[in-house]
Amino acid sequence: MATKEFTYQDVAEHNTKKDLYVVIHDEVYDCTKFVDEHPGGEEVLLDVAGQDSTEAFEDVGHSDEARETLAQLKVGTLKRQAGDPKPKASLPGAVTPAAQGGGGAGVGLYAVVAIGGLIAYAAYQYLQQQQAAQNA
């Protein structure tokens, strides 16, 4: 069985409680039958109906069970076209640079600058005392 391809325009037409499609990681899911069962309430799904909801889905941190349920709702894949919005989140399981600790260099830099400032202040005070002792 061939996987059906949908454009953003196709998905956007399915944006009501009785006809609800979402895109997650370039896969298209028909969540119509799941709207009333969604643990977060129907409003959550209606807010992203007919849209790319990858970011919203990943931000919540869905369980493995939720991902299995999602897999059962798959109806096709997204066919990207020129002018379509870019994906808002990375692939599942991907680690962002901030999560890898890439932001730690900024804190280290501030620490080096602060320590350098303290050393410079201490050296200045020492030299001032030496000069005062010579002049006395």
SSE topology sketch:
Blueprint: E1 4-6, H1 8-12, E2 15-16, E3 19-24, E4 27-30, H2 42-47, H3 54-60, H4 64-72, E5 74-78, H5 104-135
Parallel strand pairs: 1-5
Antiparallel strand pairs: 2-3, 3-4, 4-5
Describe the structure.
The chain is an alpha+beta fold. The protein has 5 helices and 5 strands. A 5-stranded mixed β-sheet has the order 1-5-4-3-2. The longest helix has 32 residues, at 104-135.
In short:
The chain has helices at about 10, 40-45, 55-60, 65-70, 105-135; strands at about 5, 15, 20-25, 25-30, 75-80. With about 140 residues, the chain is α+β, with helices and mostly antiparallel strands.
pLDDT < 50 stretches: 95-100
Order of helices and strands: EHEEEHHHEH
β-sheet strand percentage: 5-15%
Q: Roughly how many Å is the radius of gyration?
A: 28 Å
Cα(first) to Cα(last) distance is 97 Å
Helix content: 40-55%
Structural class computed from helices and strand pairing: alpha+beta
Number of helical segments with 4 or more residues: 5
> Residue-averaged pLDDT, rounded?
84
Number of strands: 5
Major sheet size, sense and barrel closure: 5 strands, mixed
Question: How would the global form be characterised?
Answer: rod-shaped
The largest beta-sheet arranges its strands as: 1-5-4-3-2
